[in-house]
Design brief:
By secondary structure, the chain is mainly beta. The protein has helices at about 110-115, 120-125; strands spanning about 15-20, 40, 45-50, 60-65, 70-80, 85-90, 100, 130-140, 145-150, 150-155, 155-165, 185-190, 195-200, 205-210, 230-235, 240-245, 255, 260-265.
């Protein structure tokens, strides 16, 4: 039900009103916890930098949560995001849709906090019908930029509000192409492995977020039981950087595999 939330986080067009559209620069990869960069422009026109959270440019999306609260989302860039582990919570508001909160890009997942969450208490606190976990999982790219709010306390930890999704959005069948409309900046660096599914028409989809540990991804193709006829899985080392800058004006074809992992189509 909630497997492909990461493909929708940073959503702009489906449930929010974009204010501006700019892009973020590329970064490098590392195994340590990366700093999130967030920049803003002060009232006197000078660029101010907050060392805790960085926003690139002046991108903004205004969005209303399932509780009826107004949220402003800005483009937040997470450099060194490859194998950055994070968690998401889905707040179900029934016919009002679903709110998505994420620990990325604020901090890597705190699994002790995650395992101890009282979902019924969270639902009551946020006025939701129910709350569901999505994760933990890892980003596969070397840099990711997503639309997100300022930090919000959720069960005592900092998360960001990333999207409000219409009802029914989370029920896409496996290996069925869907096209989320969102703002997202993605960079996979040259010389590093990427994990791809190729459909029967030759379209290539690259893994965006994964729930299978990275040391098992090279042999993941052997574990597929439901891959459609004519589809295949491969591991590839890039010869050059792959940069994708997504906007709601050009929804990106995406698919979800049987392990609840999302792949997005690489432009031909």
């Amino acid at each position: 039900m909630i497997a492909f939330i990461s493909a929708l986080i940073g959503l702009g067009a489906c449930s929010g009103k974009p204010v501006a559209d700019q892009t973020a620069p590329a970064g490098d990869s590392s195994e340590h916890v990366p700093a999130v960069e967030k920049s803003s422009t002060s009232d006197d026109g000078e660029k101010a930098t907050d060392p805790g959270l960085v926003t690139e440019g002046i991108d903004k999306v205004e969005m209303t949560t399932g509780e009826g609260k107004e949220m402003t989302l800005t483009m937040q860039t997470l450099p060194n995001s490859r194998e950055y582990q994070y968690c998401e919570l889905v707040f179900n508001y029934g016919e009002k849709g679903n709110d998505i909160y994420s620990t990325s890009p604020l901090a890597t997942a705190n699994l002790q906090w995650w395992d101890g969450l009282d979902l019924e208490a969270l639902a009551k606190e946020f006025g939701a019908k129910s709350v569901h976990k999505n994760g933990p999982q890892w980003w596969s790219m070397d840099e990711v930029g997503v639309m997100a709010s300022e930090s919000v306390k959720v069960a005592g930890t900092d998360m960001v509000f990333g999207a409000h999704l219409p009802p029914g959005t989370l029920n896409i069948p496996k290996y069925t192409v869907f096209s989320p409309a969102k703002y997202q900046d993605l960079v996979w660096k040259a010389g590093k492995p990427v994990y791809q599914i190729i459909d029967s028409d030759g379209h290539v989809y690259i893994l965006q977020g994964h729930k299978i540990p990275v040391n098992e991804l090279a042999t993941l193709g052997q574990k597929f039981k439901k891959l459609p006829k004519g589809w295949k899985y491969r591991v590839k080392v890039l010869n050059e950087d792959l940069v994708m800058k997504l906007t709601p004006q050009k929804p990106i074809p995406s698919v979800q595999d049987e392990f609840d992992q999302i792949y997005i189509r690489v432009p031909d």
